[in-house]
Amino acid sequence: MATTSDIRKGLCIRYNHDIFKIIEFLHVKPGKGPAFVRTKLRSVTTGKVIDNTFSAGHKIEDVRVETHSFQYLYPEGDTFHFMNTEDFNQISLSKNTLDAPDLLKEGEVVTIIINTEDGMPLSVEMPSHVILEVTHTEPGVKGNTATNATKPATMETGATVNVPLFINEGDKIKIETEKGSYVERVKE
């Protein structure tokens, strides 16, 4: 059993007869009244996100997990196939267990969290940044740079990301996976 002081991003807990992964949390200590922890939880079975508030010191049942590195192989409808980089076993996961499936490129190595009790995969943690090639974007209009102007660009995986006007087709860019936002252009 854990308490609210053990809450951290990525922790898997058993709550309301389901397993949830904590995606966001905030410890709040108001001037009047008891402290509490405001959390945002994602169900690992359905992908549904809920908000919940735990009072300070509340007991939570954490789920024992282990992490393994898997390489993304290929998509098949709403199913994504991965291979363990250590023993080369393959597993298939549904699209809703992934945080950002549209930013996943074939060959990318991700971390998969597995429940130690039954060996079931719970969730997929993407790397913090991915580098993708721009396959389609409109040319930037010269002189339209008074503000931080952006334009939509389609990546090689099919994802759409807003990029600055100077980005062209064929450029490789670094994308932050948590927000799905442009970070910088990558030179080879």
3D architecture notes:
With 188 residues, the protein is mainly beta. It folds into 3 domains: 2-62, Roll (SH3 type barrels); 65-125, Nucleic acid-binding proteins (OB fold (Dihydrolipoamide Acetyltransferase, E2P), Beta Barrel), CATH 2.40.50.140; 130-186, Beta Barrel (OB fold (Dihydrolipoamide Acetyltransferase, E2P)), CATH 2.40.50. The chain is built from no helices and 16 strands. The chain has strands at residues 2-3, 12-15, 18-28, 36-43, 49-55, 59-62, 65-76, 79-84, 90-94, 109-115, 121-125, 129-137, 150-155, 160-164, 172-176, 181-186. The chain has a 6-stranded antiparallel β-sheet with strand order 1-6-2-3-4-5, with no helix packed on it. It has a 5-stranded antiparallel β-sheet with strand order 9-8-7-10-11, with no helix packed on it. Strands 14-13-12-15-16 form a 5-stranded antiparallel β-sheet, with no helix packed on it. β3 and β4 form a beta hairpin. It is flat and about 60 Å long. The mean pLDDT is 85. Pfam families: EFP (PF01132), EFP_N (PF08207), Elong-fact-P_C (PF09285). Its main location: cytoplasm. This is Elongation factor P. Keywords: Cytoplasm, Elongation factor, Protein biosynthesis.
